[in-house]
Design a protein that fits this description.
It comes from Photobacterium frigidiphilum. The chain is mostly beta strands. The chain is built from one helix and 23 strands. The protein has two domains: 105 residues, Sandwich (Jelly Rolls), CATH 2.60.120.10; 93 residues, Jelly Rolls. The relative contact order is 0.20.
Length: 231
């Protein structure tokens, strides 16, 4: 399966307008954002675990990155409440076991060679810091490696948000809403901009919090054959 694999094109996905699709586990549903492969794939997906969901043990050949959007994720290594950001490097494995149910944004098979640092951040326990270079923006750093940078950004209400794009931009709305190029994005909507297309957003009346990744298209374009993962 190939879905939104052309990184030279702008793509978006709207949470409320899309349907849940099945996975190999009955209690686990997903909304695919980008995908290259079958059940083992390089992928970006919103995944919903129903209460008392269990997923088979699996190895992250190309690494796994996820953010808990709702509920509480869990595996044999721990419990991860809403707002938890995780990076499980290539070669790691786990067996998800989710009693209360949850929803996560998960990216598979997209780690750069040499990016082996595990990350576990409870973003609810960390503060945003003002971005001195951009008016109306506060940031919470999550991860960086070479040219790839992952963070949360909080945009003040009605602020204009500019960001140059030298290596790709990917955004998921966590809270609030914004507009870009005349299109309205609200909670859990997703936008991916190709290299060179800068972000020119207008935050909504209540402001906006987004998960944002930049710079990652360089290695994705150069290493399109990286091993993926399951989900």
């Amino acid at each position: 399966m190939k879905l939104n694999t052309d990184l030279t094109k702008k793509v978006n996905a709207f949470f409320e307008q899309s349907r849940w699709s099945s996975s190999p586990i009955k209690e686990v549903k997903r909304k695919m954002l980008e995908r290259d492969g079958g059940e083992i794939a390089i992928a970006t997906t919103i995944v919903r675990y129903e209460p008392n969901s269990y997923f088979t043990s699996h190895i992250h050949d190309g690494g796994e990155e996820f953010l808990v959007l709702d509920g509480e994720f869990a595996d044999e290594h721990g419990r991860y409440p809403i707002g938890t950001y995780m990076r499980n490097p290539p070669g790691t494995s786990h067996t998800p076991s989710v009693e209360p149910g949850c929803m996560i944004l998960v990216k598979l098979g997209q780690f750069q060679e040499g990016d082996t640092q595990p990350v576990h951040i409870d973003t609810q326990q960390h503060l945003f810091v003002k971005d001195e270079a951009r008016t109306g923006v506060a940031i919470q750093p999550l991860h960086s490696f070479k040219h790839e940078v992952v963070r949360l950004e909080r945009w003040e209400q009605d602020s204009t948000i500019m960001l140059e794009n030298t290596g790709g931009i990917e955004i998921l709305v966590i809270e609030g809403a914004y507009d870009h190029d005349g299109v309205h994005y609200t909670k859990h909507d997703w936008l991916r901009l190709p290299i060179g297309e800068k972000l020119n957003a207008k935050a909504g009346h209540t402001g906006c919090i987004v998960w944002i990744k930049t710079g990652h298209h360089f290695h994705q374009l150069n290493h399109a054959a990286v091993s993926g993962g399951i989900l």
